[in-house]
UniProtKB/TrEMBL annotation:
InterPro entries: Acyl_CoA_acyltransferase, GNAT_dom. Residues 7-176 form the N-acetyltransferase domain. This is GNAT family N-acetyltransferase. It comes from Klenkia terrae.
């Protein structure tokens, strides 16, 4: 697990949302994540269906966020269902046992905060008896980060994010098959 002095990870609290929305807005402006400006909202960041969420805190200040979501369930559209099928095939894990790593964002002020959150999400998925998976836009800087840190690409699935159609890259942890 990655370590950064002074950085801790704890469950997200409602009081964290204003700060997280600032981070999310800045991320959208600087790197295009999230893809749509219209989703820089608390109800997108903190979905009621999430399995778990966490924040990175450095010297008392929230500097990042990550969440795990179910890969299947009510409200999942055809693109999400296709992604779940492909992740399931790639891992040999039933879609109901997958945990989609999502809403990973940092403010960029603490080197390694994103990796600490990534490691935390992977460990948490395991503790829930789930296999972590993720998707990323093909041109996202995060794609290279994931590849360098043990993730592998297993295909794409077309996603409809508002007016944006994206052939999202599906990723699983290398060696993460059952």
């Amino acid at each position: 697990m990655s370590t950064t002095p002074g950085l801790t990870v704890r469950p997200r609290e409602d009081a964290d949302l204003p700060r997280l929305l600032e981070i999310l807005q800045r991320s959208h402006e600087l790197v295009g994540y999230p893809v749509r400006a219209s989703v820089v909202r608390a109800d997108w960041l903190a979905l009621p269906t999430e399995l778990v969420s966490a924040v990175a805190v450095h010297d008392g200040r929230v500097v990042g966020h990550v969440a795990l979501h179910p890969a299947t369930g009510p409200g999942h559209d055809a693109g999400e269902q296709l992604a779940a099928q492909r992740w399931s095939a790639a891992t040999g894990t039933p879609a109901e046992r997958l945990a989609v790593l999502s809403r990973l964002v940092t403010d960029g002020s603490v080197r390694g905060a994103g990796l600490v959150l990534l490691d935390h999400a992977v460990a948490t998925a395991g503790s829930l008896g789930r296999v972590p998976v993720l998707l990323v836009t093909p041109d996202a800087d995060a794609r290279g980060l994931y590849l360098r840190h043990g993730w592998r690409e297993v295909g794409t699935a077309r996603q409809q994010w508002g007016e944006h159609t994206v052939d999202a890259v599906l990723m699983v942890l290398a060696g993460g098959e059952d």
